[in-house]
Structure formats: structure tokens, C-alpha cells
Task: inverse folding
């Protein structure tokens, strides 16, 4: 058994209507001035105003920074830092999807430690403590609320920088499944397949260990049952709850085992081709499962055995192939693209994409070794 360390840095508070506890939780952290980091979409559905009201009712002053966009860049983080400099918060709250929560962590890094986001690319680069922070997800996807990593894009190189530090982990992850009911169907699909991919990839990485496996397995159990259900019945409160807990557990699995080739392959599709992250993941994940399958068949069989999904006997003659069929079925049910050709990506672009994918950090954690040639083969299969 491999050596490992486990430290639960984040307190998880779950329950329908639990957003009402935001003010009291911030006060427990000693907060009196909160920078609320969110995006215009979350403001438009009223979640930001409600969160601010909860804070004000607890005697906390609030400044809302809603300048976050999908795949936040160093520019978004710098803009938020300037607003933090002017307001002088003592607690930061990230409200929204992974982009808002990652941007909140990014702002926290450079507000407390100075410098730029590039200085924190990698692990444990912060020299000073960060402000206590709270993550409030409004989607069930990235699991950023239970991770110490912020994914911030460098707009010049278009590289996603994974900036991780235990000091950046949210002190509290506040999970209110009622917040996820306002998601459009496509957002539910895109974030949901990302959460599913986190459960699948963390289960087989080179860094997997008993702690990560416990979270991966339970995340998969919850997500595999609730994802197809929430696609068909978006107002099902049980499905929404299971999706949100499953996504948070998958985030804890990432924290302890990292990800693999599906994310390495997806990132260049987003940065170079403009394919939304969840859709890129959906295209690549079944092919990565098949690629990894022969040496790691038993691990995929374990996942297959703890899902209630119906699997046609004729879809494949091995566990990895059957699991890939299950995943492909959900992707079709969600209405997401299944092929790179659906985005008019031609074969002559694949070599460059594969070289970029090989440089992605998560490629090194894939259970089967991958380099540009292996990743090119997977892209070709996805074409």
C-alpha cells in the first residue's frame, strides 16, 4: 500500500436552504467585510443579492465583484485584486461555478501575497497566509469548493495554470442544492459530465490511494445514479442533492489523486478550439477509458459494478469498453457533442493539439503513460 497523507482542510455544510447560514458561517471565521466574487449570470438569477442579504443580516459589510467570466484569466484575477485593495476584505466568498470559485482563490493569492498569478503556478508557492474563504457552488461540476487548486488561464500563452496551495482551500464549502435548480439544461449537462469525469479519472490515476478511492467510489455511486436522472427530471430535489454532494466528493478525490489524460486532452480543445470544457471532456473521456482499459481493466470493472446503469451485452467485450458505452450514452442523453468532427476539427490540427496535451500537468498522472504519439492516437479515435 502506498504512503499517503490526508488533511481535511474544508468543512462541508450541506442542506437545502443552507445559503441562509452564510452570514453566521462568515462570522464564525471572524469576518466583518466580505468580498463576494461571482459572475453576471449568478447576479441575474438573484443568488448574489440573496447571499449579500444573508451577510448583511449578520452584520457583515459586502462588496460584490461580478467580473468573472468562464475560464477566468489573470486579467479577471487582477481586476478582482484591485477591488479587494479598495475594499479591504477580511473574508472572501466565491459564489458560482468553478470559474467564480477559482477566481476567488486567485484573488486571495495575489491580494495577500502580492505578485501575479504566474508566481503561484504549481504547488505551495504562497509565502503568507491567505484570507479565510467560503466556496458556495451553484453548479454540480468542478468540485472547486473542496480543492486547494485554482485554474487560471494565462491569456498570452492560453495555458491553464494549476495554482495549488493548502492555504488556498476554502475553510467552508457551503452546499445548497436549491441553488443548482436555476441552471439551464446545457449547464447541468456540461458541469455534470465534468463531475462524472472527475470520479472516473481519479479512480485510476497513478497517485490514487485509499483516501482518494473512498471519495472517488462514493462520488461515482452518487453521480452515476443522479446524472441521467437530473437530465430527465431537472427539478428532482434528490437528484440535485446527490449531484452536488457527488461533485464535492469528486473534488476531494482530485485533491488527493489528481486527474488524467481526459483532462489533458480537453484543455487544448478549450484553449485552441473554443470548445467548452465540459463538452471537450465528454468527447474525450470514453476514448481515454478505452485506451487505459487493457492494463487497468479490473479498476474500471469495479466502477461498472457499482453503477445501476443498464449495459448492453453487445456494446463491448470488456469492462472498459462497457464503461465507455455507459458514458457515451449519458453524453448523447445530455445532447452534447460526441466527436471532434462535430466542431469541424480536421486531422491536420491533431498533432499540434497532442503536443499541447502532452504538456498538460494531468497527463503525467494518467495510469497508462502518455506522450504526444499516444495522445494523437486518442484524438484520432475521437475525430
Result:
Amino acid at each position: 500500500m502506498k504512503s499517503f497523507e490526508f488533511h481535511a482542510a474544508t468543512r462541508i455544510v450541506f442542506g437545502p436552504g443552507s445559503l441562509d447560514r452564510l452570514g453566521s458561517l462568515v462570522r464564525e471565521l471572524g469576518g466583518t467585510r466580505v468580498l463576494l466574487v461571482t459572475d453576471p449570470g449568478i447576479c441575474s438569477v438573484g443568488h448574489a443579492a440573496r447571499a449579500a442579504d444573508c451577510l448583511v443580516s449578520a452584520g457583515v459589510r459586502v462588496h460584490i465583484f461580478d467580473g468573472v467570466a468562464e475560464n477566468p484569466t489573470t486579467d479577471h484575477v487582477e481586476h478582482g485584486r484591485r477591488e479587494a485593495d479598495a475594499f479591504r476584505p477580511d473574508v472572501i466568498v466565491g459564489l458560482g461555478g468553478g470559474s467564480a470559485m477559482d477566481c476567488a482563490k486567485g484573488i486571495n493569492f495575489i491580494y495577500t501575497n502580492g505578485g501575479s498569478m504566474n508566481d503561484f503556478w504549481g504547488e505551495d508557492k504562497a509565502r503568507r497566509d491567505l484570507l479565510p474563504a467560503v466556496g458556495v457552488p451553484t453548479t454540480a461540476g468542478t468540485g472547486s469548493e473542496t480543492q486547494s487548486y485554482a485554474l487560471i488561464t494565462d491569456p498570452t500563452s492560453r495555458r491553464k495554470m494549476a495554482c495549488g496551495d493548502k492555504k488556498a482551500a476554502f475553510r467552508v464549502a457551503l452546499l445548497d442544492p436549491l441553488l443548482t435548480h436555476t441552471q439551464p439544461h446545457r449547464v447541468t449537462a456540461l458541469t455534470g459530465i465534468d463531475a462524472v469525469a472527475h470520479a472516473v479519472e481519479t479512480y485510476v490515476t497513478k497517485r490514487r490511494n485509499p483516501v482518494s478511492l473512498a471519495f472517488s467510489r462514493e462520488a461515482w455511486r452518487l453521480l452515476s445514479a443522479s446524472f441521467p436522472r437530473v437530465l430527465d427530471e431537472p427539478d428532482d430535489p434528490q437528484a440535485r442533492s446527490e449531484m452536488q454532494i457527488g461533485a464535492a466528493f469528486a473534488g476531494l478525490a482530485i485533491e488527493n489523486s489528481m486527474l488524467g489524460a481526459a483532462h489533458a486532452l480537453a484543455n487544448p480543445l478549450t484553449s485552441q478550439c473554443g470548445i467548452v470544457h465540459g463538452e471537450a471532456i465528454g468527447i474525450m473521456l470514453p476514448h481515454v477509458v478505452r485506451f487505459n482499459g487493457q492494463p487497468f481493466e479490473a479498476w474500471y470493472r469495479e466502477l461498472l459494478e457499482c453503477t445501476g446503469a443498464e449495459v448492453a451485452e453487445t456494446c463491448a467485450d470488456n469492462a472498459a469498453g462497457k464503461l465507455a458505452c455507459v458514458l457515451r450514452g449519458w453524453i448523447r442523453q445530455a445532447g452534447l457533442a460526441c466527436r471532434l468532427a462535430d466542431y469541424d476539427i480536421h486531422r491536420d490540427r491533431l498533432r499540434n493539439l497532442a503536443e499541447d496535451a502532452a504538456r498538460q500537468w494531468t497527463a503525467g498522472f494518467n495510469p497508462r503513460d502518455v506522450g504526444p504519439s499516444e495522445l494523437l492516437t486518442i484524438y484520432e479515435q475521437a475525430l
Summary: The mean pLDDT is 94. The first strand starts at residue 11 and ends at 14. The radius of gyration is 20 Å. The longest helix spans residues 210-232.
